[in-house]
Specification:
By secondary structure, the protein is of the alpha+beta class. The protein has 18 helices and ten strands. A six-stranded mixed sheet has the order 5-2-6-7-8-9. Strands 1-10 form a two-stranded antiparallel ribbon.
């Protein structure tokens, strides 16, 4: 594989984001529709795929003290700038929140679940004002505009499905990921310095401010060291769950996301950085481990898809597991052992929407990553006699993603039904 192609993939998938990416993607679509309309909407209709809706219902929206889609939609319409992509509402101030709240009181807004779409990630926004109308569709990925229409004029249309677009991408393998991370010139990896600084800063914020369920802050607190200890392991858990607490709790904090998810970006980054800091790992090895971690997540998401019934941040811990194993001195064989241990352990953890409780799942996934890496370094691993693990590591990964993408569709529907019944 051409290294330029891999570099493009990394810079395409590891991007800055503020707030949970599902409601932010809705705000982005609304902002684009408002810009296409040319005025503030008088009415807004939003249609969402079930998976997108599931992930946008219960998460805090930055700097608002509010949860869910209505305030995200209002901010997208009033202050959103589509050119900022997943930072679309970064200009949210107290005055902007009041403006958005006022907008909610006077705007005809309808939020619907589109059960007909075949896309797992689908957002359709229609806005009207003064007898004019605009329609915008985002599908396939959080920032991919697939359709833009002003009144009766179609400005842009991409008729390819996300499946067709994905097939055109260069498909990774774990060996390709490993070879890139270990042999690419170091100057190509300097980008990961920014990734590390940004995602660790989100954790630092969570230790100062109460956010979400405060999982990271609790683990970081000296008062709890008598229970959890003051170890590298505890610090890994604290700095990863803490950054997740800050995002899911609605702090105005930027993180570097991975494959459309801020939590996945955090999970791919913070465990690797903390381990390197605690063990005085040299800078080059840290950058290569971060590249390995993030690129492994990108590889897994190529077949799993942006959204699924499997918890994405736990799946992303397979990436951090690879990075941790490299930092522990492991080679490619040890990486494959670690991945098989992960597949044997965390398969099946459901995604029941983005919410403060994601920090709990992040802690479970990252804790499993450390365990899997330590076992792999001792050449202990699950094999093809056990469950869905295959002797071929790539097949093990594909077995995992097939479960999340195909076999758990009914699970996904039942999860959404349970969530909707609570709000009826």
């Amino acid at each position: 594989m051409n290294y330029t192609t891999i570099e493009h993939l990394i810079h395409q998938e590891v991007v800055p984001a503020i707030g949970c990416t599902e409601p932010i993607a809705v705000a982005l679509c609304v902002a684009k529709a408002k810009e296409t309309l040319g005025s503030l909407p008088e009415a807004i209709e939003v249609r969402l795929s079930p998976n997108l809706f599931k992930n946008a219902m219960g998460v805090g929206i930055p700097n608002t003290g509010m949860t869910g889609l209505p305030i995200a939609i209002a901010l997208g319409a009033t202050i959103g700038k589509s050119e900022l992509l997943l930072e679309v509402i970064r200009d949210t101030t107290p005055a902007a929140v009041e403006q958005a709240k006022h907008f909610l009181t006077k705007t005809d807004m309808h939020i619907l679940v589109d059960h007909e779409t075949q896309e797992m990630l689908y957002i359709q926004v229609t806005v009207t004002a003064a007898n004019h109308r605009a329609k915008v569709v985002i599908s396939g990925s959080h920032t991919h505009f697939a359709f833009i229409q002003s009144d009766d004029k179609v400005i842009y249309e991409d008729k390819q499905s996300s499946e067709e677009i994905n097939k055109e991408e260069e498909q990774l393998t774990l060996k390709t990921v490993w070879e890139y991370a270990t042999t690419v010139s170091l100057d190509k990896l300097s980008f990961f310095d920014e990734v590390a600084r940004t995602n660790m800063a989100a954790a630092d914020l969570s230790f100062i401010k109460d956010s979400g369920h405060g999982v990271g802050k609790m683990l970081h607190d000296q008062a709890n060291h008598c229970i959890f200890g003051n170890t590298t392991f505890t610090k890994i858990l604290a700095y990863t769950s803490g950054a997740c607490d800050a995002r899911m709790g609605g702090q105005m904090v930027k993180v570097m996301s991975n494959s459309g998810s801020g939590n996945q970006g955090i999970v791919a980054t913070n465990p690797v950085v903390v381990y390197a800091q605690e063990n005085n790992i040299d800078h080059e090895t840290l950058l290569r481990a971060l590249a390995l971690s993030h690129l492994t997540v990108i590889y897994i998401k190529q077949t799993l898809g942006r959204l699924s019934a499997l918890c994405g941040c736990v799946v992303a811990s397979i990436g951090s597991c690879c990075g941790l194993t490299m930092l522990m001195g492991g080679g490619y064989d040890e990486i494959t052992y670690a991945v098989k241990n992960m597949v044997a352990n965390i398969t099946g953890m459901i995604c029941d929407g983005a919410k403060p409780g994601c920090a709990l799942k992040v802690t479970s996934g990252v804790g499993t990553a450390v365990l899997s890496s330590a076992l792999a370094m001792d050449h202990r691993h699950s094999n093809s006699l056990e469950g869905i693990v295959d002797d071929d590591v790539d097949q093990s990964i594909h077995n995992l993603t097939a479960l999340g993408k195909d076999a758990m569709r009914e699970t996904d529907r039942m999860i959404l039904d349970m969530m909707m019944k609570k709000r009826s």
